[in-house]
Every structure is written in structure tokens, then in C-alpha cells.
Design brief:
The protein is mostly loops. Helix content is 13%, strand content 0%. It is built from one helix and no strands. The protein has one helix at residues 26-31. Residues 1-24 are annotated as: Disordered.
Amino acid sequence: MKKERKKTRPQVAPGMSDFLEKKATREEIRKGNFTRVTRLSYDETH
């Protein structure tokens, strides 16, 4: 049998970063329901 796949839409659009700045609550951390985020910034100076 073939499994039916749900069609999902992207939840994040390029340029959206406000959700990355939101801190996890103590409850989320306790449950392990969080993601570590590392930002990489390219700074070119001459």
C-alpha cells in the first residue's frame, strides 16, 4: 500500500527571523523541546 503524504506548506519564509530570537521557556527546556540556534554573520572589511 502507498502511504498518503500530506501536502504541507513552508512554515518559514526567507528573511523571517523573529522566531529565532524567542527564548525557550523553562518548561520547554525541561522537556527538551527547543533548538539551539547559531547565527553566522559574514563581515567583510578592507
